[in-house]
Amino acid sequence: MILLDGKKVAAFYRERIAQKLAAVTQRDQCPELAIVVVGDDKPSAMYAKSMQKTAASVGLTAAIYQKGGEASEEDVTALIESLNQNRQIAGILLMMPLPAHLDSQRIINKICPEKDVDGLTDSNVARLFTGRPAFVPCTPQAVMAILDYYHIELAGKHVVIIGRSNVVGKPVAQLCLNRHATVTICHSRTADLPAVVRQADIVIAAAGRAGLITGSMIRPGATVIDVGINRVDGKTVGDVAFDEAAAVAGAITPVPGGVGSVTTMMVLENVVHHFGNA
Ligand code: NAD
Fold first, then answer.
1. What is the pLDDT of residue 275?
2. Average pLDDT for residues 78-107, to the nearest whole number?
3. Cα of 97 to ligand 1 centre, how many Å?
4. Contact (Cβ atoms closer than 8 angstroms) between residue 51 and residue 21
5. 137 lines ligand 1 (CB under 6 A)
6. How large is the average pLDDT for residues 37-66?
7. Is the Cβ atom of 163 under 6 angstroms away from ligand 1?
8. Across the strands, what pairs with 61?
9. Is the pLDDT of residue 227 over 90?
10. CB neighbours (10 Å) of residue 115?
11. pLDDT (average), residues 28-57
12. DSSP string of 185-199?
């Protein structure tokens, strides 16, 4: 059994991003990431700070632009438009969720698609679904980064995804399809989930339900990617019953130390990728 170590994958990207940034900076270009936080959602504030720290660790400036919880759609849109026009800013990351009175997707769509490093604009979603190069959300991108790092082939494989959210399940399904996998998407109304998961060469669990995927659902030798993050008895666990699944799987990601370790690095990769192409 191969343990798919997210920290190793993150370290690989960290090095690559730092090198690209050093090259870009030598050309007198200093890309910056803008992190927009609206309101006082605690997890968003924490994520913004940790993103800023990770960015600093690869030599990328990431500034947090904070708006109050009462900010109007016009206020937030005006900020995004000024960031769109600022040539120094290579990427814009809008922390979700926005306060309830704001129309999230309408605001997201104000982000210039070339700076939409988390792939949330309708334009980037459409590009992904039509198989054209696009920025994609960081978690699905992290899943692909792990599979690629460990040379796990997708073409012709049956990938079973558990979860159909817009930020994880659907985009990861599309990425797998674009790489010639046969894809099945399961969700809360799938009849006989175990029978479907048992058919998978690659299982991608993204339901947010601790222990949903048991060892008996895993086909011997299958690859298991656990995207879930759940708190159980003060511990962070995934959606997969790790010990049981690891006993049958050919390869598996741990939680923590798997997909979650790679996600923030994917946003930074997108910032650098974009600027490198400019
Ligand atoms: P979500 O709640 O938006 O979607 C969950 C999906 O799982 C839904 O489509 C639902 O139909 C499906 N589901 C729920 N219960 C099910 C069941 N019993 N059987 C089959 N399907 C079921 O969640 P999300 O935002 O897609 O996130 C999914 C998980 O991934 C969460 O645990 C979240 O914390 C985690 N996550 C991890 C990262 C990371 O970096 N590792 C990033 C984002 C989300």
1. 59
2. 96
3. 16
4. no
5. no
6. 95
7. yes
8. 32
9. yes
10. 22
11. 93
12. EE-TT-TTHHHHHTT
Identify any residues that bridge with 91 across adjacent strands, giving them in sequence order: 33
Mean pLDDT, the chain, integer: 95
CATH (one of 1.20.1200.10, 3.40.50.720, 3.30.40.10, 3.40.50.150) for 138-260 = 3.40.50.720
Could you state, in order of their start, the residue ranges of all structural domains in the chain? 28-117, 138-260
The residue among 78, 75, 87 whose CA lies nearest residue 39 is 75
Question: Which superfamily is assigned to 28-117 in CATH?
Answer: Leucine Dehydrogenase, chain A, domain 1 (3.40.50.10860)
Give Dmax over CA atoms of the chain in angstroms.
Answer: 57
State the Cα torsion 175-181-182-187 to the nearest 10°. -40
What's residue 102's pLDDT?
Answer: 98
Distance of alpha carbon 197 from the chain centroid: 22
For residue 81, give Cα distances in angstroms to 51, 73, 152, 250, 272: 22, 12, 40, 48, 21
Compute CA distances 99 → 45, 81, 164, whole Å.
13, 19, 24
**103 token code pair:** 């129309």
The number of residues making up the chain comes to: 278
The model's confidence at residue 276, banded by pLDDT at 50, 70 and 90, is low
Which of 186, 188, 224 is the best mutation target for the ligand 1 pocket, counting ligand atoms within 8 Å of the beta carbon and taking the most? 188
Which residue among 93, 96, 162 is best mutated to probe the pocket of ligand 1, counting the most ligand atoms within 8 A of its Cβ? 162
Amino acid identity for residue 35 in this structure: I
Is 100 within 8 Å of 69 (Cβ atoms)? no
Q: Are 274 and 18 in contact (CB under 8 A)?
A: no
Asked if residue 202 lies in contact with residue 154, where contact means CB atoms within 8 angstroms, the answer is yes
Instruction: Please report where in the chains the tokens 């803008």 appear, as a residue.
Output: 34
Whether 175 has a pLDDT exceeding 50, the answer reads: yes
Ligand 1: distance of its center to the CA of 260 in Å? Answer: 13
